[in-house]
Prior knowledge:
By secondary structure, this protein is mainly β. It has 3 domains: about 1-110, Jelly Rolls (Sandwich), CATH 2.60.120; about 180-210, no CATH class; about 215-395, Sandwich (Jelly Rolls). Helix content is about 0%, strand content about 40%. It is built from 1 helix and 28 strands. The protein has one helix at about 355, and strands spanning about 1-10, 10-15, 20-25, 40-45, 50-55, 55-60, 105-110, 110-115, 145-150, 150-155, 160, 165-170, 180-185, 190-195, 200, 205, 215-225, 235-245, 250-255, 265-270, 275-280, 285-295, 300-310, 310-315, 320-325, 340-345, 365-375, 385-395. The strands form 8 sheets. Strands 17, 18, 19, 20, 21, 22, 23, 24, 25, 26, 27 and 28 form a 12-stranded antiparallel β-sheet that branches. A 3-stranded antiparallel β-sheet has the order 1-2-3, with no helix packed on it. It has a 3-stranded antiparallel β-sheet with strand order 4-5-6, with no helix packed on it. The longest helix is centred in the last third of the chain and has 4 residues, at about 355. The protein is globular, with a radius of gyration of 25 Å.
Amino acid sequence: DFLCISLVNGYIQLRYNLGDKTVILQTFQKVHANGNTWYSLKAGRVGNEGYLDLDGINITQIASPGMNALDTHSDFFIGGVSSLNLVNPMAVENEPTGFTGCIREILINNRELKLTVTDPKGGANVGDCDGTVCGYTVCKNNGTCQVKTSGFSCSCPQEWTGSTCEQSIHCSQNRCGSQALCIPQPTSFSYICVCALGWSGKYCDSKIKFFIAKFVGNSYIKYTDPYYGKRNLQHSRISLNFTTNQTEGLILWMGKGEDEDNDFLAIGLANRTLKVVINLGERISVPLIHSKYSTCCDERWHFVTVVQNQTCIKVYLDEELICFEDIDPHRKYTALNYGGICYFGGFEIGRKVNIVTTGLFQKGFTGKIKDVVLFQDSKKIQLMKAEGYNVYNGN
């Protein structure tokens, strides 16, 4: 399998192969080789449907029956490759050659690849395209960078301040307390404080403790399992109690949630009912839904348990078995390699639930969670000792 973006006779080409056929998309407009114009390029695929967008002009390849997962574990190569033997002959139109020009701000699945000297694993013959201390990200929020004898300075737009225009003027004199985040509110010329786990109040200056965690929709807890290295990942188990008055929401994401290679087990609400999704490594998410049971809007506590025995999944709701399914009778992947990470209620600030879960769940959880137990542990998880924001005492 491969995915390749290249410049061919002045046009941008996207080529990808998911294991059965090579798809080719090409832009309508040419790229001018004057060395002075920056272009914005977006390319990718959803299943086997590809898209290519150059400066807002979009081309889409309509999906046809076939494979829809990109099965590759290689590194990303930018501008060239370490050996031309690595390039699939179908990935390029002519003999492969390296790129000559400037590249900046590369995002893969909404995560930026840092093109610094130290961040990549390797490279050769790459220089500084700007040639000065003013790079494209030095001054934030559309600030203008000016080269000085002692370095650089930023001229900031009206709403921003700081040495790199990184701080909103509405937060420059904020009173937000310990580890809190200041979120500017430009329309009211003010700000709000988002409290770190264990703090509450308008300015996050009141220390709190809780055994019942209350989530308000843009909340999350990230728990790191200290016993992950000793777990038998072929036999996983998690149980918890929850209550909510919402019809949608992510309750639990057991996994790193970083890219499509990560295993996960997820519990949430979709259209008023409990939804459990599991991925053991096939990149095929298997949703288990039992529409008979509504679990929202009744102000009751519900007890859910999910048991994974290799590829056999059991889901219990209020101690009744509602789902029992073997998601892969061939037993190709049998372990839940979740990385020791459990998210409750949502993900870090700025990471949208529908993006991270690729549409499996639509938004963060609003409601309460308590009595979380991993595997066969004798003690409940102490959610207070995790990290998170916007979580309150649900007692």
